[in-house]
Every structure is written in C-alpha cells, then in structure tokens.
Amino acid sequence: MKPLEGIRVIDFTHTLAGPFATMVLADLGAEIIKIEPPSGDETRQWAPFVNGVSAYYLSINRGKKSVVLDLTKSEDRDVVYRLVKESHVVFENYRPGVREKLGVDPNKLFEINKNLVYISIKGFRPSSIYEDLPAYDIIIQGLSGIMVSTGYENEPPIRIPFALFDVYTGMVAVIYALTGLLSRKPFYAEVYLFDTAIFSMCYLPVMYLLTGDKPRRMGHQHPSIVPYQAFQDKDGKWFIVAAANDRFFTKLCEAIGKPELASDPRFNTNPSRVANRDALINILQNIFREKSRDEWIRILRKHGVPVAPVYDFDEVFRDEYVVRELIVELKHPLLGTIKQIPQPGTINGERLVSTIHPPLLGEHNNEISNL
Description:
The protein is of the alpha/beta class. It folds into 2 domains: about 240 residues, Rossmann fold, CATH 3.40.50.10540; about 80 residues, 2-Layer Sandwich (formyl-coa transferase, domain 3), CATH 3.30.1540. About 35% of the residues lie in helices and about 15% in strands. It is built from 16 helices and 15 strands. The strands form 5 sheets. Strands 5-2-1-6-7-8 form a 6-stranded parallel beta sheet. Helix 1 packs across helix 7 and helix 6 packs across helix 8. The chain starts with 7 loop residues before the first strand and ends with a helix. The relative contact order is 0.12. The model has no long low-confidence stretch (mean pLDDT about 95). InterPro entries: CoA-transferase_III_domain (IPR050483), CoA-Trfase_fam_III (IPR003673), CoA-Trfase_III_dom3_sf (IPR044855), CoA-Trfase_III_dom_1_sf (IPR023606). This is CoA transferase.
C-alpha cells in the first residue's frame, strides 16, 4: 500500500509546476482527478510529439484521471462541487481573478468541504507590484538573477535549459499539501514561483546580502573551491574533478604524478589555490590532455579523487545505473509503452511510480460522472 492511498486530489492546474506536483502525489498513491477545459491542458500541444502525443505532456501527467469540464457552465461546476465534497486536496494555478469567475475559489470550496486542503500556485504574491506579471519560466529566470550568474563574463544571459524553478515550486507545493493533510483543518496555502526561485538559490542570495558581492560568472568553475570544475582529455572529452578539500587535492597530486604540487605554497591550501587559480588550472589542464577521459577516471578513482565524466544525453541514458534505476515503462493505449522517470528515492526499499499512464483527454469522463 502506498502512503497516500485513499487521498483524492482535484487538479485544476496546467503547464508544469502544478502538474509536476500532482504527479508526485500520484506516485505516492493519491488519486488525481485532472480537470481540463474542452481544449485540454495546453502542454498537450507542445512539441516534440510521439505519434501525435506530446512528450512534454507525457513527462508530468502519469497517475491521473482526465475529466473534461467547462467551468463556465453551471452543470459542469456542479460536477466539480460534488467531487470536492468527497476530496481532500485541491490544486489550482489560475491567473488572478479566474478562480472566482469559475466558482472554484477557496471561499466557495471551503463552504462545500470544511476540511479541504487548497493549494494555489502563483507567479507572485497577490497585491505585490508583480501580481499581474505573466510568470513564464524565462521571466522568473530573468528576474531571479540566475541567468547572469551562469556562463562567463561578457556573454549574453544564459537560460537554464529546463524550467527549474517550476519544478522546485511543484515540490514546495507538495510539501504544503502534505502539511495541510497533517493539519486536519481547513488549510489554504499559496506558493509563488518567483519567491521559490530566490529561496531555492539558497546560499547565492544570502552570500550577496551578507557581503554585497555579486556572484561571478565562472562557467563550470566554483568561486570558493579549486580545483572543482571540468577538464578536457586528449580527445577533447570533458570530465569533472572535484578536489573539494586539501586531502583530496593531495590525492589528486599523487594520482597525476605531481606530489610536489601539494606542498607548493601557491597551492597547499584551498585559499591559496583560489588565489592562484589560473596557474594551477593551466598546470592541471596540460597534464589531463596527456590521457583519455576513461584513463583519468580510472586513475583518479583508484586514488580516491572525486571524478566523473561529463555526459551528453546519449551517454546519460546508456549509463548502467540510469538504465537499472531511473527508467521505467508504462503501458499506454496509443503508444504501446512509454518510458518514464520514477521518484528519485525509495520508501521502505521501493522506488515509487504510478503505473497509470498519462491520460487521454477526457478519458475518465464516464467513470467520474458515476462517482
């Protein structure tokens, strides 16, 4: 039995943060009823497509039942109210004013179910200066400072290539939903994408607030640890060396046949290595170009140095660990089987993932209408 079996969630969300959150709850055993307008969740129309089905949509909607309802119609709202009466959690991510217009605002739904947990995902806090600003991923990345904290100096801003803050927001929404279920009383929570972005960067904003120093754009390097970055081998392949303390640096020097570097006053402590970063990195890079990536990984691991290849996606999904642990297959009525990524941990030794395929639009209309 999964931890959340018996919990019913009404999901009005679309796009990423909300659907990701409710997929996590589905993996944990909750019943998710996905309420979609007649046009469906907009991600159903997002490329790339697999035999006409959006891969994006497939990635974040397993474990759900799809019901098509037009909430501008009173008879369809009545279906929602009947469902809410027998449910535990509601998720929505409507623009300001929309939930009231559709009759699914918290005041209305708490009248129907006084023990409801209501989770609202928004871009920004209501009544703030940004309340009406569209909260697209690139807007949040731009406002957060992350785009000019990655890459290198004098380069254009760099967007993280997936909606990182939407995913973080979804996880925070899951935490709030579980908190609400534990509270056993009317529970209303709002989660804001922009606030989550600043919060999730953790030490970067706090370091700035305490020192006034903006994060340097250092690419794959670390501002406070050297060497802690990617290097190239003789064939141009990249690998990571993470000598995060003096002990690992000494092991690294022994592994590359240069033990004297560990006692060199320019490099014998991490602060000295940071101060003499360019000199040390130049020495190491010249040495690493003498052998292949695989050779260096074998040598460095033998000496206890933290090291890993820099994979492209082909290599990631050929990796033995990933193949064994992080790819599962679900049956799908149109596609036969689809590959999915399960939950990133285990509960009582079991890696949880819903076995219910991402639903077709309105696939469960008849089932839900009979509840």
